[in-house]
């Protein structure tokens, strides 16, 4: 690569995309274009162009379990093995940068994109992501962890401002990214759409320079989410390398003009261009055909791997004893009634940009029908998939379950395609009412009921006391059905543990009163009390705690020893059945120290043991074990004092614990009594005065804009004084609703437009619209139709001329 001989214009051209998925290259400098593709759990190599939402066709690829399922394995080595397969497929499909994994913390169970994210805990999320990243990059393909950072809701996702205190941001929302960057060294990272404390992520100097580069040592490329760049000039200054998908030459011109005016230094452009060029060099391909497809051997091998991954992700949540034995595994040759639409028509992934065109597809009904271990007494649909009432389906299911030929009922339930999708958040935490009605009817049959639950996020379970076994399979990928059958029949011993808490009801969530936020400012009022950190500290009962999972084995724990470097203890399998124990290390800070949750996960290990086998396990402390972020000094500190170290099966089940004297770099600082309700984690009771103490500053009340701007979502135009703007929003809303009702899936294009601010128009139209034209559109939205349309036409003419001039100069450069 020869960057030193490039002009400012040529370097600036490297900093934005050439098309929906391709970067720009410069042949004379030896910098090829490279291809980016969605790929958190499978490569979505787009056919054609113009689609970044997973609507159009893509090349067949293996659909592995989504991140929400993979995290339940608590196995970073398995994630690395899956990453290797992802990287291999990306290479074969001519993809240089795989856009994943997703690392955002699950702040609330209703976030529509939670199925793409690992956990509510940053240690678990970070370690799983690090494994996946290492595997991907072994193939010479760049992983691209996302969305950096503090991105927690889909509503207004491109026009939302996450208001958060520095300590919570560092400890909860950034630590997973820190682990991934430090331990796996990704070559690129993707910023989020939202603002953080008033500054867009892609132009946030504190985030991209102070923390990511200076503190963590990241030396790679920072790419915007698609349409997520605001100011190209401010992004270059702050550390944003590549703007995607394609603003045409609009951003190129803005950058060149800024250098000429002295508002941007040439050295900043040099750094950003070098970061983009380095990705092109690191991921360079030779002889790859753009129309290449996966070979049969890869398809078969990776399907088998997808099954093995799915087997490790299954979480056994309930397994009662009936007639002297546990219901699961199913007794050999049990006569099983299979009930539920999702048993026949599988759902194994979410909707949106991560949606994979899977190489194969399995259904649980087919797997049961071909099993030699059980006998299928029959199948009934049981419910309408989209939730429409149909009593006849329930009657048919009850008739089958009641028959003499049925010994066990297997009911397959879950969320439909409308419920979990990029672009919109869930409206509630309930299963469709028709599924709950089915379960009520099946209870009266009086036979053992096994529920197989398919969902990427927690759901309320009003019938939990009426069923005998519950297997949570999540969104388990294309081989999830066969994996589930193997767990149900005992060929596989379940070893998954929940990577997030399951509240009894949505009202129990710490931020149930303020999620999602419809206005600009999303205030993270709960502070560090996210997930189990809240439930354990505030003593709020949950349905299933973080880290929970049953197996067909039994384990005991003993002989805990703590030294300055870490802990050691013994784990024994006290049963006849080989299995795996997920051992979790939690710590509790000094009683007279800073405000903290009651306990926090700091490490974990998955231990495989044969029947009646024992093992000595060692877990070392690391930089994350005892630290907290001190807002006064703006640095990481460790408090000297007596800490509690806990070895647990899940966050509520402490098997071993010990006190440990830690010598830190500061004396304990008692929590400020003015924190009030926060001292006990009772975040819903905290008022604005207590919030100001937590944040270290007053937090202004959200205000509704009187005038629409370029960064307000188009959805807000439904209140516009302009007839054209109001009408457009109403049409989009009506179209999206009708599409969802007709197809059972959300209209992602309509949702994207409704949630996007007008500024995105000049970022995703290949330069056909520039900032002046966006200002004209905003004028129309504010009721100035004539003036706006006139300004738009004039700006369009000027923009076309400028684009032609830049293209000509680059062509002859």
Automatic annotation (TrEMBL):
Record bears the keyword Transferase: no
Top-level lineage group: Bacteria
Stored Gene3D superfamilies: Glycoside hydrolase family 3 C-terminal domain, Glycoside hydrolase, family 3, N-terminal domain, Immunoglobulins
Protein name: Beta-glucosidase
Occurrences of domain Fibronectin type III-like (ranges): 581-651
SUPFAM superfamilies attached to this UniProt entry: (Trans)glycosidases, Beta-D-glucan exohydrolase, C-terminal domain
Family recorded in the similarity comment: Belongs to the glycosyl hydrolase 3 family.
One protein family per Pfam: Fn3-like
């Amino acid at each position: 690569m020869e960057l030193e001989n490039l002009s400012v214009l040529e370097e600036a051209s490297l900093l934005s995309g050439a098309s929906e998925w391709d970067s720009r290259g410069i042949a004379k400098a030896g910098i090829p274009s490279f291809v980016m593709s969605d790929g958190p759990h499978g490569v979505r190599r787009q056919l054609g162009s113009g689609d970044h939402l997973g609507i159009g066709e893509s090349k067949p690829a293996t659909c592995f379990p989504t991140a929400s399922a993979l995290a339940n394995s608590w196995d970073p080595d398995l994630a690395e093995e899956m990453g290797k397969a992802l990287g291999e497929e990306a290479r074969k499909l001519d993809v240089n940068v795989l856009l994943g994994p997703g690392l955002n913390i699950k702040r609330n169970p209703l976030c529509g994109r939670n199925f793409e994210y690992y956990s509510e805990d940053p240690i678990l999320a970070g370690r799983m992501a690090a494994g996946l990243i290492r595997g991907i990059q072994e193939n010479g393909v760049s992983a691209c962890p996302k969305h950096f950072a503090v991105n927690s809701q889909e509503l207004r996702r491109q026009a939302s401002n996450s208001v958060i205190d520095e300590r919570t941001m560092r400890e909860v929302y950034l630590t997973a990214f820190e682990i991934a960057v430090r331990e796996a060294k990704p070559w690129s990272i993707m910023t989020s759409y939202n603002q953080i404390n008033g500054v867009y992520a892609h132009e946030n100097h504190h985030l991209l320079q102070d923390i990511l580069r200076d503190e963590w040592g990241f030396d790679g490329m920072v790419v915007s989410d698609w349409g997520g760049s605001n100011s190209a000039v401010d992004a270059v200054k702050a550390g944003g390398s590549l703007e995607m998908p394609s603003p045409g030459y609009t951003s190129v011109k803005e950058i060149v003009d800024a250098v000429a005016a002295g508002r941007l230094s040439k050295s900043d452009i040099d750094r950003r261009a070098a970061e983009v060029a380095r990705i092109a060099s690191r991921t360079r391909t030779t002889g790859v055909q753009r129309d290449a497809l996966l070979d049969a051997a890869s398809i078969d091998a990776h399907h088998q791997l997808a099954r093995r991954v799915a087997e490790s992700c299954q979480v056994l949540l309930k397994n009662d004893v009936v007639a002297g034995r546990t219901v699961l595994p199913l007794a050999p040759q049990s006569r099983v009634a299979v009930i539920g639409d999702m048993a026949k028509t599988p759902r194994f992934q979410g909707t949106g940009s991560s949606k994979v065109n899977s190489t194969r597809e399995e259904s649980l009904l087919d797997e049961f029908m071909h099993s030699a271990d059980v006998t299928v007494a029959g199948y009934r649909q049981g419910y309408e998939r989209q939730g429409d009432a149909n009593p006849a389906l329930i009657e048919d299911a009850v008739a089958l379950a009641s028959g003499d030929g049925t010994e066990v009922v297997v009911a397959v339930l879950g969320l439909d395609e409308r419920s979990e999708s990029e672009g919109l958040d869930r409206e509630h935490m309930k299963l469709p009412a028709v599924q709950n009605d089915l379960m009520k009817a099946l209870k009266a049959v009086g036979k053992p009921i096994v529920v197989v639950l398919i969902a990427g996020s927690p759901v309320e379970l009003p019938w939990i006391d009426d069923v005998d076994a519950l297997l949570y399979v999540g969104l388990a990928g294309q081989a999830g059905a066969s994996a589930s059958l193997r767990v149900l029949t005992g060929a596989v011993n379940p070893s998954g543990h929940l990577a997030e808490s399951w509240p009894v009801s949505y009202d129990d969530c710490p931020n149930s009163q303020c999620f999602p936020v419809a206005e600009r400012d999303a205030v993270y009022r709960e502070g560090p009390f996210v997930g189990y950190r809240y439930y354990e500290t505030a003593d709020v009962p949950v349905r299933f705690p973080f880290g929970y999972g049953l197996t067909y084995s039994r384990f005991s724990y003993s002989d805990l020893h703590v030294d300055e470097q870490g802990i050691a203890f013994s784990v024994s399998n006290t049963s006849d059945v080989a299995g795996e124990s997920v051992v979790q290390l939690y710590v509790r800070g000094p009683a007279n120290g800073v405000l903290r949750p009651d306990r926090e996960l700091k490490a974990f290990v998955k231990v495989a043991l044969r029947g009646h086998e024992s093992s000595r396990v060692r877990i070392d402390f690391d930089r994350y074990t005892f630290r907290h972020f001190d807002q006064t000094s703006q640095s990481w500190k460790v408090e000297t004092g007596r800490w509690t170290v806990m070895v647990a099966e899940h966050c509520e089940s402490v098997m071993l614990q010990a006190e440990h004297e830690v010598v830190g770099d500061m004396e304990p600082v008692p929590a400020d009594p003015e924190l009030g309700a926060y001292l006990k984690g009772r975040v819903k009771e905290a008022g604005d005065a207590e919030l100001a103490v937590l944040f270290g500053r007053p937090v202004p009340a959200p205000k509704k804009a009187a005038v629409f701007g370029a960064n307000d979502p188009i959805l807000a135009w439904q209140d516009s004084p302009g007839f054209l703007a109001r009408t457009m929003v109403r049409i989009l809303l009506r179209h999206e609703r009708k599409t969802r009702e007709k197809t059972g899936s959300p209209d992602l294009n309509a949702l994207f437009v409704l949630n996007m601010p007008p500024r995105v128009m000049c970022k995703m139209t290949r330069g056909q619209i520039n900032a002046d034209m966006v200002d004209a559109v905003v004028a129309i939205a504010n009721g100035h139709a004539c003036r706006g349309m006139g300004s738009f036409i004039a700006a369009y003419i000027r923009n076309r001329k400028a684009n032609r001039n830049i293209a000509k100069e680059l062509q002859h450069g």
